[in-house]
Write a structure and sequence with these properties.
- The strands form three sheets. Strands 2, 3, 4, 5, 10, 14, 15 and 16 form an eight-stranded mixed β-sheet that branches. Strands 1, 6, 7, 8 and 9 form a five-stranded antiparallel β-sheet that branches.
- Strand 3, helix 7 and strand 4 form a beta-alpha-beta unit.
- The protein has two domains: about 1-50 and about 160-285, 3-Layer(aba) Sandwich (Rossmann fold), CATH 3.40.50; about 55-160 and about 285-355, Rossmann fold.
- Helices cover about 35% and strands about 20% of the residues.
- The termini are far apart.
- By secondary structure, it is α+β, with helices and mostly antiparallel strands.
- The protein has helices at about 5-15, 20-30, 50-55, 55-70, 90-100, 105, 120-125, 200-205, 225-240, 285-295, 305-315, 315-325, 330-340; strands spanning about 20, 80-85, 110-115, 135-140, 150-155, 165, 175-185, 190-200, 220-225, 245-250, 260-265, 270, 280, 300, 305, 350-355.
- It has 13 helices and 16 strands.
- The structure holds S-adenosyl-L-homocysteine.
Length: about 375
């Protein structure tokens, strides 16, 4: 059994149960025994695979999206291109390759990568060794120079820790919500869920999506405070400089009740307590909640669109046809990649894109509409 499990149990014994977010944070990011810092989990030999790993088309289209965004913000100099959670760096490499079509863009851009895992930073360094633009690693958005900024993140939000809350008495309204905790059961020597006796604080209740008022007893809601922090930082940046922040991830357009915490090992679902620190842990991204939070801080946000629609609007079918024409032997492979990224049975509808932007910009490429701004 994992060393991290022993440490988590020791901590629960001395300090009491921990929140689901704390558990998730330790499992994923503990520097000594966490999942990401100690391995490269991606690809067919790893635990999961992502869109940029499936096909070069994904990053190439995001490159085109980025160039269009740069044009939309007036082709400024000194642009920061930021990626959150870049994995193996493949998406950024594909984006920059596509951007060679716009040398004036490349002349004006510096890349910043925000990556919690030292192991993956090393892989990214290799992948981007021939980058046509300067690449550096920083710890947070605050460390990036003020200036026009384009931010992208694929399957980044889903690995940010979520807190879970359970409605135990809906007539008590916000006071009926209790936090779901991780505890240790001595008799069976297992980690297990428990519900905190105390109701949540007013502050925590207010951070929950508005759908909480529709909850029935036993309904569970997830909240991702780290995603809110990111949006706060994006908002602060866009107050002074133009830019956009694009996120693609899996999750619903409307808030759903229920536990979505999931552990993956070698592409199979396993129990979330089965092997702490050695399995990938993610939770669905609540796109409605992201939009609500953005509105609450007056940050312009699009309505989310499905990945299939987003990629289609960016021209993925045309790109696939061009690639197949250039390499007829790969025709079948490219058709399969297109299917994985866009079909309903695969990633096409489960995955969504959402974009946040500075004031005064039109609806970004690939999207339909902006969320109405908050009524005052
Ligand atoms: N975007 C990549 C990788 C997705 S996996 C792709 O699509 O292939 C999630 C990535 O986010 C990994 O690189 C992981 O190490 C990183 N990550 C997870 N939590 C993070 C955090 N809090 N801060 C920065 N990076 C994080």
């Amino acid at each position: 059994m994992s060393l991290l499990r022993d440490r988590i149990i020791a901590r629960i014994k001395s300090e009491g149960p921990m929140s689901v977010a704390e558990y998730m944070g330790l499992c994923l990011l503990d520097p000594a025994h966490g999942y990401y810092p100690t391995r490269d989990p991606l690809g067919s030999d790893g635990d999961f695979i992502t869109a940029p790993e499936i096909s070069q088309m994904f990053g190439e289209l995001l490159g085109i999206w980025t160039i269009q965004t740069w044009r939309d913000i007036g082709m400024p100099g000194g642009v920061n291109l930021v990626e959150l959670g870049p994995g193996r760096g493949i998406m950024m490499a594909d984006m920059l390759r596509a951007a060679r079509l716009a040398p004036d863009f490349l002349d004006n851009v510096s890349v910043y990568l925000i990556e919690a895992s030292a192991a993956l930073q090393a892989v990214q360094g290799k992948t981007l060794a021939d980058s046509p633009v300067p690449v550096s690693w920083v710890d947070s958005l605050e460390d990036i120079p003020v200036g026009p900024t384009i931010i992208v993140g694929n399957e980044y939000l889903d690995c940010l820790p979520v807190r879970q809350f359970i409605q135990t008495d809906r007539f008590a309204q916000d006071k009926g919500w209790h936090e779901r905790m991780v505890t240790y059961e001595k008799e069976t020597d297992t980690l297990a869920f428990a519900v905190a006796a105390e109701p949540v604080s007013d502050l925590a209740a207010q951070a929950m999506p508005s759908a909480r008022t529709e909850a029935r007893n036993e309904d569970l809601l997830e909240v991702c405070p780290a995603a809110h922090q990111i949006l706060d930082a994006v908002k602060a940046r866009f107050e002074f400089s133009p830019g956009r922040a694009l996120f693609i991830d899996y999750g619903p357009e409307v808030t759903e009740f229920g536990d979505t915490l999931q552990a993956l090992k070698r592409h199979e679902k396993v129990g979330v307590f089965s092997d702490p620190g050695n399995t990938d842990l993610t939770a669905r991204v609540d796109f409605a909640a992201l939009g609500e939070f953005a509105r609450s801080i007056d940050l312009a946000a699009t309505t989310p669109v499905q990945q299939s629609e987003f990629l289609s609007k960016l021209g993925i079918e045309m790109r696939a046809a061009t690639l197949a024409k250039a390499s007829p032997d790969s025709k079948l492979k490219i058709a399969r990649q297109l299917d994985r990224l866009t079909s309903d049975e695969q990633m096409g509808t489960l995955f969504k894109a959402i974009c946040f932007q500075s004031d005064g910009l039109d609806v970004p490429m690939g999207f339909r509409t902006m969320l109405p701004s908050q009524e005052t």
